[in-house]
Amino acid sequence: MTPLSERQIEIITLLLLKDDYCIADDLADVLSVSNRTIRNDLSSIKTFLKEYGADLKAEPHKGYKIIADIDCKQKILGHLDSAKSLTRDKLVNAICILLLSLESTTYEDLASYLDISKQTLIKYMDDAEENLSEHNIFVNKIKGKGLNIEGKESDIRAYMKTMLSDSESSGFIISLAEKTFLNSSTLVSARQIIKDVETQANVHFYEQRRLELLVSYCLYRVQIGHTLDKYDAIDTTFANDGQYQLFHEILKSLQLPETEKSYLISILLETKVKHLDQKHDNNKDAEQLAKFLMKKLQLLHPFGKLKKERFLNGLTSHLNVALYRIRNNIPIQNELLDQIKISISLIYLYTKQQLLSQEEKYNVTFDENEIAYVAMYLASAFETSINLDQKIRVLIECSFGTTTSAILDSRIRQLITECEIVGPFSTSEAKEYLSNEEVDLVITTHDGSNYKYPTIIVNPLLNSEDADYVRTRIFQLSHEKMCQSFMNSYMKQDINKSKCVSIKDLIKKENIQIKESCDSWEEAIQTAAAPLIRAKQIEQRYVITMIDAVNRLGTYMVLLPETAFVHAGTDSGIFEDCCALLVLKNPIVLGNVNGKIVRNMIVLGVKNREQLTLLDLVAIFQKEENRLLLANENIDIDTILKLHN
Questions:
Q1: With the C-alpha atoms ordered 369, 371, 377, 381, is the resulting torsion angle positive or negative?
Q2: Domains annotated on the chain, with CATH
Q3: For the chain: N or C, fewer Cβ within 10 A?
Q4: Which of 454, 622, 476 lies closest to 557, judged by CA?
Q5: CA dihedral sign, ordered 593, 596, 602, 604
Q6: Whole-prediction pTM value?
């Protein structure tokens, strides 16, 4: 197998996930390397792709595109996924999957499957055994024979189903399945069963790859002599359902015990289907859905006719492709997913809320990757409109005379051209101006200014360090202002006007803490999350991931003054939906670079795809009177629980 560098893995992933051609210059920009480096990489990539029966097509003036069918792309993604470094959680899950998939094995074979050392495998074996034992599955270690699992067949099937359903690393799972139970005979049989049901019942199953895996695993277990018996618990509540009877009739000639047929039908019934008598026109549906989303976006902030047309055309084009992908079970990976969910979290959740409301109408299921792409469109239009209408107002205060003031004024105006700037004023002029007018930021040349507005002290000649900080602070203020504007509009919508939500509805009393101080922002996140760890709602890994997100992505999580909403991905160690709050009497600075002052630290763990807790929480904390109460020296937990939107 042709070895790949990390950069080459990134290039292949980008090309696989892009619908159209990609030019070398774009790849060079994304990866911050030269065009020549990209071309050298593409030569190695072409060789690698041939080993999978795929090709790298080059077209003049168009660029490069990987030519491969969906199965081939899945295999390649699986290889790339397994080529990357494995996290502890992923490695433990991988060991579990292999033990569930192999009739018998050895430490050496397991290590070989995962391309790790035997010592590394043994290091994580106890965790894998613990995971299995929690599902009443146990590992037998027989000297001279190796390892195998023991447990009720229904428990083994149920745990494999959980592993396949919960994992976000489908490519990695497929690569393991191909080495074990997803052999040619079981896969062919599984596909034939699915095809027969689709053809005769006139339906189409979504999540085809997951369904193929589940059916193949069932057939594999039967093949090696492990079948369900009449004592195994199978949900028979649907036995009188018309769809069950139809599927049973279609599968009656299948050479399997009745219990296995019932199990297969239960898998099919659990999988979302599209009834083919419901005809869908992707173009028409995309246009209608784009108009719906534009109408919802305009409720947040209206924009002009020309901008509406551009937005509608662009979004319709994207949704047309997205609906085609969803309806043809073509998975897509949004490499910016985590960044989008954090940096534009409110718009992401709003987009998610709207798209989920339309799933039944269009008979589709939007996954978070598709939602994130649509959210980018909405965020771009919303932010542009907000920036035009709500510029940051900056007051310049300088006490070093006319010449110095003129230089400072000139340099700041060149630095932050998108802001509305007033001044430069002397101290007395600034105080007089602020007695009648409001600003978002004060930039001053001397210490001792005591304004109610955020204040930055700079060198009168504005050195480079000051300039960087001013630029960053303006960006932060703009982000906060946009969030507040979004929430003001969001709460005015009819669906939210009469919806009263309190802290007590969202956060349990035992998950709220009031502390004097923390030594660092990392300690603050750890402290805030501690009740959730104790309750086993999240694991320590989730806390580490949240801290890493702040380091990587900056302080986007500070959506409101002195208030951070800290969270990470759903697959980073969350066991159930949960929330915690830490109120600090002495605020800390969040972030190691260009940090923000934070008094209120909210930690969120979101497992349910339909959960919109963040929007409800922001609605509560955006009220200035609530934030003032939280800053009160005598604040107590009972008062906090009563705060509402």
A1: negative
A2: 6-70 (1.10.10.10), 85-179 (1.10.10.10), 184-275 (1.10.1790), 282-389 (1.10.1790.10), 393-479 (3.40.50.2300), 503-642 (3.40.930.10)
A3: N
A4: 476
A5: negative
A6: 0.52
